[in-house]
Amino acid sequence: MKDNSKNGLKNDIEDTGNSGDKSFVDFLHKKQRELVTSTVDYNLESISQLINKRTIDLAPKYQRRFRWDDNRKSKLIESFLMNVPIPPIFLNEDDFGKYSVIDGKQRLSAINEYLTGKLSLSGLEIFTDLNGLNFFDVPLEFQNSLKIRANVRAVIILRQSDKDIKYEVFQRLNTGGVKLNAQEIRNSAFPGKLNDKILELSENKFFHSLLGIKSKSKSKIYQEMRDAELVLRFFALKDSWKNYAGGLKKILDSFMDDNQTMAQTKVDEIAQEFTETLEKVQAIFGADGSFRRWIPENKKWKQQVSAPLFDAQMFACYKKNKKKLEDSKTKILSDFKKLFTSDKEFLQSIESSTATPNRFLYRTNKLNEILNNNI
Prior knowledge:
By secondary structure, the chain is of the alpha/beta class. The chain is built from 18 helices and seven strands. The protein folds into two domains: 37-179, no CATH class; 197-374, no CATH class. A hairpin with a 2-residue loop joins strand 3 (89-95) and strand 4 (98-103).
């Protein structure tokens, strides 16, 4: 018989009284006390003011990044004009008078962008005359009507709630809409020093230059946290890539789970290793060739970043002497480019089924071999 005592449920077969019922009720009340909420209706002007005064934080670390395009933002504004009911937003009360968004980040951002004149409407199908216009292009009566009459309901998780409940609420609420990808889930599920450092490194300007990120608002790599996942791939596999046996997602998930409470000194150490390895890759391949394919027919680098080549270049350069790499740059580059004309298996290893052990190890060993043969 299953022992449910750890759940607050007695399983004593001789106890036929009400103690089991009481225990269950106590457990239920305890769980309900962990989440205490309040409900407030805000008009759009109030929402914009709260955001601009930083009373509402749109970017707590567990949140996904901004992902809506202008058409989707415009559709939200059109919904307000049509009096279409909008789902409630969820806020966490971080301190008295200070809130962070749990669910509704994209909606809140769109509202604020429009009311501050930063968004010109586009793709509207009902109010077509408003396409191309921002908030200050329309008559004052229209502005006032939208600011004051339209409203959004906010469910606020109060401070007396369990401090970690916001992460659970975030994940439960974000099962619909634009589905969270694996890295966005890790970002919300494993808060702590390690995740903070991954986010910090993923925002690094030097790293962004190698990834070709010039505008965060236009980069899917940034919006979908692919840059953060690349940092994590390095952390999780830098010392064990030679033993890679598949299951990349599980490896990344397990690394975050096992190291969520990693000491700050260790976090700083592996962050330094990441930065130094980036510099080595850039020293050999340059900004144009880092993490990218060589196109022999055009004699130039492909613009699109390749995650398989990120792995191969980073792991091959890790622990190598930077000066020796720089001294051998010309020969290393020449041998690397030859792979794209003479090694069919290498091409397959970066094009399809790239996370399988054979292909992962083939491409990374090839890069490592080229470096070892030339330094």
